[in-house]
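FW: tagging you since you asked about this chain on Friday. Here's the raw sequence from the shared folder, copied in full. Didn't touch anything.
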Amino acid sequence: MTTNDKQVIFSLIGVGRVHPPNKQVLKDIYLSFYYGAKIGVLGLNGSGKSTLLRIIAGVDKDYLGEVTFAKGYSVGLLEQEPHLDKTKTVKEVVEEGRREVITLLREYETVSNQLGESLSPDEMERLLAKQSRLQEQIEAVNGWELENQLEIAMDALRCPPGDSRVEVLSGGEQRRVALCRLLIQEPDILLLDEPTNHLDAESVQWLEQHLRQYEGTVIAVTHDRYFLDNVAGWILELDRGHGIPFQGNYSSWLEQKQARLEREEKAESKRRKTLERELEWIRMAPKARQAKGKARITRYEQLLSQDSAAIGEDLELYIPPGPRLGDIVVDAAGLSKGYGDKVLFENVSFGLPRGGIVGVIGPNGAGKTTLFRMITGQVKPDTGSLRIGETVTLGDADQDRALDGNKTVWEMISDGKDTIKLGKVEVNSRAYCGRLNFSGSDQQKKVKDLSGGERNRVHLARMLKEGANLLLLDEPTNDLDVNTLRALEEGLERFGGCCVVISHDRWFLDRIATHILAFEGDSRAVWFEGNYSAYEADRKKRLGKEADRPHRIRYRKLTRN
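HL: got it, structure written out here
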């Protein structure tokens, strides 16, 4: 992964890693990295992506082989579960990224205060000299702009208010604060493990712009395919322990990957067919992509009547249709909801047509999950009406639903049976678990020992086999690798029903969404016919330059008569 006109700043020489007792995740990797390279890391869950970043960062020292660095280069790592000092405020944690500049600024402030005191001529001269020296040091690192830089980054990443204490933050909020601290730090080698998780689409776009201009090397583990298309100049695929570099972005990698699979003569595999269909989608003009999504509405009857056995054979992840939908699926008129003195959203109206797939987007806390709970009947609107059609059978991957912690993943998904019935199609239960990223050993894990992402996948696997005609999916794309994302997209494209999905994955929404419901802040929600890219073009036309910079979410205040 090196070119002649670039300076190699670190290398992996025969690097391998074996997790106890004897699971080899990386084997004999030889790679060199140059300064300024932008690299996206792809691979199945468990392929060693996070392990590779931790080895490069010096956090994981139990590896085989050698990692060599050129002198003087700094490394920064964003882990999936960052460690923050819970006694500090958000602002104090972010400031840790530029500790040396903060120290200079505070020292300058102390000297300036001392100059206002009664001093002897010698003391005055000494302090003035010190102030001048500090001023030169601050100007050399552009320190006077630091406060403004901090505020822009915290606002764009939608961090909690600066005076919030870390101990009260959610896991997602802590990740955003840790990412903000790392970007402010500006290390020469920036290692990002799933940086787009817990960021909404606007913040991800801001991050893309920032990283494209970043002078140092960026290595990012991510399943966000637009991110990989827009930022990466290289793709590093981890496959069965080996590191395989490809020059180019995600779309280019897909082309090269297809050619490699052809050479390996895997022409008839379901995964190969899925990859080919994604390539076909990439090659479509944007208008053709949007037309394909809109056509889904008019093809509802065709979707419902398709040969389920043939579709089940063709797809990696087949989602069985539920009963035939009537004319009304979900009809919302003038919905409003507030908590305390904050209005989450107001006057929201839409009608979900048969066959429609709605992508629900917006910052955390804007009201997306509250809307889901209205559809399931758990929450009532303050004003307005929400009508669910009589023919609707809900499939809800509600993360709050209890799972039996003493059962294994396989038992929880399969109910202990060797085959699973998906509508009229029977599939092997262990193969079905594998399609949702649960490999052989992972299927034997106890549910109580699962991570949050793994629990989400268990919920998703259980719900997708239920035979509902309206699916509610809350962040299904988190914690799925690209292969599984592709399979889920294809399953939803061929699903004979409706779906409302909360997601920040723009590629996913472009492939499947017929409509977008966007919570844009200021208690406003916009219903848009079309996929994410069409919505985004419309938003930029409406908002102009303001659309390019995300801000912390704002609510209207509740006024009472």
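FW: The mean pLDDT is 87.
HL: agreed, and The first strand starts at residue 8 and ends at 19.
FW: great, closing this out.
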